[in-house]
Amino acid sequence: MNGPLNYVNPHAAIRWLEAIGFEQLTRNGDAHLGTEIVRLVRNDVVIEVGQAYDEFEMPSHRRDEPGARTVATDDVSSIYSAALRAGGTSLDPPAIAAPGMRAARVLDTGGYEWTFVTMSD
Asked: What are the tens digits of pLDDT across the range 76-104?
């Protein structure tokens, strides 16, 4: 975890994250003051969501974005579909990315890039 992902609408981001299998662990700070940080977990992945105050705190999508989020899953197609239904934007639909690996990429509701990966033997 490298610090919170900041969103203009953190509540929408949390709903999106819950749609792809994250669960809330803790809430700290004050939502009315814009200082609330929500910690969520999915398997062993823990992230924090916070409030962005202007466009300078929001991501600009780039393929080489450092720290792009990767989620290992048993079913890339299911999580990809859930991500789109919850308001995500497709970058790459599920496909074979390498021998024994399927992957898909989406942007979440705040513009952060996520990669979903399934490895098989």
From this structure: 999 999 999 999 999 999 999 888 899 99
Contacts of 88 (CB under 8 A, 6+ apart): 16, 106, 107, 108, 109, 114
Tokens 């929001």 — which residue?
A: 58
**To which CATH superfamily is domain 5-55+67-119 assigned?**
2,3-Dihydroxybiphenyl 1,2-Dioxygenase, domain 1 (3.10.180.10)
Type and span of the H or E element at 42: strand 37-42
Phi, psi of 23 (to 5 degrees): -125, 145
SS3 21: coil
Q: The whole model's pTM is what? A: 0.83
Amino acid (1-letter code) at residue 51: Q
Structure tokens at 41: 């977990």
CA pair distance 23, 27, nearest whole angstrom: 12
pLDDT digit string, tens, across residues 44-84 = 889 999 888 765 555 555 444 555 688 999 999 999 999 99
